[in-house]
Amino acid sequence: MAGPFTRLISGRNTAVLLASLGAGTMATGFLMTENNSLVAEAKKMLYPPSSDFPDLRKHNNCMAAALTPAVYAKLRDKLTPNNWTLDQCIQTGVDNPGHPFIKTVGCVAGDEESYEVFAELFDPIIKDRHNGYDPRTMTHPTDLDASKITNGVFDEKYVLSSRVRTGRSIRGLSLPPACSRAERREVERVVVMALAGLKGDLAGRYYGLGDMTDKEQQQLIDDHFLFDKPVSPLLTCAFMARDWPDARGIWHNNEKTFLIWVNEEDHTRVISMEKGGNMKRVFERFCRGLKQVEQLIQERGWEFMWNERLGYILTCPSNLGTGLRAGVHVRLPNLSKDSRFSKILDNLRLQKRGTGGVDTAATGDTFDISNNDRLGKSEVELVQLLVDGVNYLIECEKKLEKGHDIKVPAPITQFRK
Amino acid sequence: MPFGNTHNQMKLKYSSEQEYPDLSQHNNHMAKLLTPAIYERLRSKQTPSGFTLDDVIQTGIDNPGHPFIMTVGCVAGDEETYEVFKELLDPVIEDRHGGYKPSDKHKTDLNPDNLKGGDDLDPNYVLSSRVRTGRSVRGFCLPPHCSRGERRAVETLSIEALDTLSGDLKGKYYALKNMTDAEQQQLIDDHFLFDKPVSPLLLASGMARDWPDARGIWHNNNKTFLVWVNEEDHLRVISMQQGGNMKEVFNRFCTGLTKIEGLFKDRGHSFMWNEHLGYVLTCPSNLGTGLRAGVHVKLPNMSKHAKFEEVLKKLRLQKRGTGGVDTAAVGGVFDISNADRLGFSEVELVQMVVDGIKLLIEMEKKLEKGQSIDDIMPAQK
Fold first, then answer.
1. pLDDT for A30-59, tens place per residue?
2. How many CB pairs (< 8 A) connect A and B?
3. Taking a C-beta distance cutoff of 8 angstroms, is the pair B192, B207 a contact?
4. What is the pLDDT of residues B250-284, one digit of tens each?
5. What is the DSSP letter of B27?
6. What CATH number corresponds to the domain at position B66?
7. Which of B40, B150, B159, B263 would you mutate first to test chain A, the one with the most A CBs within 10 A?
8. In total, how many domains does chain B have?
9. Which of A323, A351, A386, B13 has the most CB atoms lying inside 10 A of its own CB?
10. Where does A146-402 sit in CATH, by number?
């Protein structure tokens, strides 16, 4: 690769290269001062996309599966309006080859426009991750009418707690991988100002990560509300932990049932939760809170990132659509030992995690069970799926308790044939 | 990041106050010296390859530091960083390198004949001797900022050059990404293998991107001369051997480096160097010589002496554990090396180590016999 061009790139020889590109003396003199994009131009010629194409032979993630040299060549030199590049989107996937059993996504958006400018890469990734959802032809339904949920109160002998989470991004500000400090602070300002307008059971307060007292910190830890600086290389390689803990914080209502994380992996993560099995009430509060926050930011001229192709826009493509994970902590001592447990979950479109969250193992017989899907089905549909699924699991558990047999349910249809 | 950081232009629509980092909890050279006024003046600039002020300082923002250890808190993305951002980096350099002024000139001296003695450090105390430095290849961006294409070009150039070394310097390159398990184990056993950085100081500056692409280790067949490619710098060059013959280590170091420099020049590339900053490396702490000459030495008595730190300071030496920077000493064995990098030549720094270690061993021997060391306390160098 090192050859005649490389010698030319050092300072005083740039003039020779510029001449070879066809720039006259005056133009060269003008261009060589403040405007450094000319050197970028020269570099692009020196380093064609093929010289920069990442080595993905050991990789197992959606980005590595979708990024061909041809797609890279087409997209490498493009910029979003916020000047975010393809290399910055894919860096986390290049740095984290993945695991043979777990297929991570391997790329992030730096702003809303990433999904458009780099659509040629993001669309196949979205299709891969979201069971065949094709952003080019399909539309995503949004439905936050909690009254439609049926059978949403679980048997508390089994269900210990219920929770729904999602994320929201503020349109016009870059996402956590790309945002400058000023943008991040602006997100914090906009969100905190809106949340201050919540009333009644939603009234609460904000704790900035950088300036909470030790006592406040301990309380938030005891409540299991505190989030910490990301340690996962999936996140740190995507530049999301820059400037920690500047402009990061936690807001929660006085009743501790509605919680918002500011500037962690997304602009906001919105969480509704309570002990026990009343998922319907949890979802009702979730929808009401989200709608009120949306209204409060709209009053000040802001809105959430959303479009009908991709639903709510979030940093990770895996969270597009609803960004919704509805789940319960549920005791299933008999069912969890049955060899059909995984298959049953699969067919119900559910996933299990340990009670510490993603990438943790279950302790004892208590599992975190939640919906697998995010995009292509509405919030109401996904919560109903979770509700029906958990009710089915509880029925199985009860049958096994009595020594009766259980049935594996038929799989719920997906887009992918 | 590569090909011009036009992202910086977008940030300019926010005011300097809105973008200025919160450094209230910080203890590093950058945080001490980056005033809001300097930030305002430098934030709109970028180097020809697009490295910006925020790129320079990100690692210092993300790593507030330690009350006892003053880290640098900034890095260069290319040679021009030290020019374009001199308003910040000159004070950082002055602070870090004992008052080195923007007008000072740095001497380079890689003539091993100028070293007096050093071939007779007592092997009963000195277990091993080592000299390391770094070199950057002019015309390529440095590890925090280089593209994959550039990094690979540096690797290819390095392999081409190193492959032509002969005699006792003849050796082989092992690319990190395709070494066999057997090769990897051998390199670990030889204490040659470097791994993906885990230090947040390095990670936050972007040096570990695309690991292990275009990273590798070259060493001679005798296992006494070693080159790391694309770790924290383009090249890290190391000469080492068991025992106390620092002169031989330094001989090989100078010969090898000079040869390598010549081989790169043959291919149309010089090392980054200028008469003010000497050799230009990624971290401002390694400017000048980039040289750390050190020994692993047994000082069980001396290290427990109340004046140990004072003696080291007077001799312009520093101690580390035998695992390298940020490790603790084990069994009274210390890694002792020169504290300075800039403002002294290579020969001068190695001389300080040689003379200093001689004195420390003398002190150790006295303490072994129950004698005092007060009469041989050194003056401040």
1. 334 444 556 667 777 889 999 999 999 999
2. 124
3. no
4. 999 999 999 999 999 999 999 999 999 999 999 99
5. B
6. 1.10.135.10
7. B150
8. 2
9. A386
10. 3.30.590.10
